[in-house]
Amino acid sequence: MVTGARRRAVRDADRQIDTAHLLHSLLESDPEARAVVGDGPQIARLLGYLVQRSIGYGLRWQSGVEDSGAVPVVTETAGFSPLAAASMEYACERAERHGGPARGVDLLAAIVVDSQARAVEVLRRAGIDPHAVLARLDGWSQRPQEGLDRSEERVDRSQEGLDWPEDRAERSQECVSGGEGAY
């Protein structure tokens, strides 16, 4: 899944993998995540928007780093935007808290939690409510509700990214890539 997001970022001439790249790759590779996001017409509209973004609509995003604006910009975190890196770490932590391997729904929950994430903007522009996606995720995974209020914790965690050790970045990427998890 991460490989697909990286390939998409390179093809789009983006400097970093952002949460929209992760969302796009996740929707293409994980049927469970697709089912949580919505029905056929919603997924078609969302994928259409993501494809449109990849062929030029997202050009206004290429010069900037995806960040919540609440913390200083992290310039390099293993090729990920600060929010994408924090999302991958959060997905691994979420899976660990619930005693299982990381799954696509863990990453989906992680990327829709922060209202400043590009993936959230993409969902909204496609007519999909990120709050509703998160509510379905909580029911789908039968895990305790975590809510969108976790975005402050994630933003604070991305502050840690200023000193993010390379091994921590690699561990999160390995977990999300399937080294410790299923996606």
UniProtKB/TrEMBL annotation:
Residues 143-183 are annotated as: Disordered. Residues 146-173 have a biased composition (Basic and acidic residues). This is Peptidase. InterPro entries: Clp_N_dom_sf.
